[in-house]
Amino acid sequence: MRFKNIEEVKAAVANAVDFYNNERPHMSINMMTPSQATACEGEIKKWWLSYRVKVIKEKLTELEIPENSLPLSAVQGSPSGLRPPVNP
Predict the structure, then answer these.
(1) Cβ(50)–Cβ(43) under 8 Å?
(2) Would you say 39 and 32 are in contact if contact means Cβ atoms under 8 Å apart?
């Protein structure tokens, strides 16, 4: 496909993003679209095990925090919420 101008390219990208987010089911999120997954509450069934997430959850459950310690604030942009993103 050959595009004649930048508006055609922008429209094609917008259509592709819309299809990806609203029409195409993803195996990684239990055959839902990303739009459907964001509307769900609770944990979504995964079709495979993420060893990274497993280790993070194990470390968090093993971590003993004294009652008088300061709470950790969540870091926006980090998947675990525990450290800043690599490329802010």
Answers:
(1) no
(2) no
Torsion of CA 67, 68, 73, 79, to 10 degrees: -40
d(CA 65, CA 71): 9
Q: Where are the domains of the chain?
A: 1-88
The answer to whether 27 and 34 have CB atoms below 8 angstroms apart is no
d(CA 45, CA 28): 8
pTM above 0.90, yes or no: no
| Whether the predicted pLDDT of 21 surpasses 80 | yes
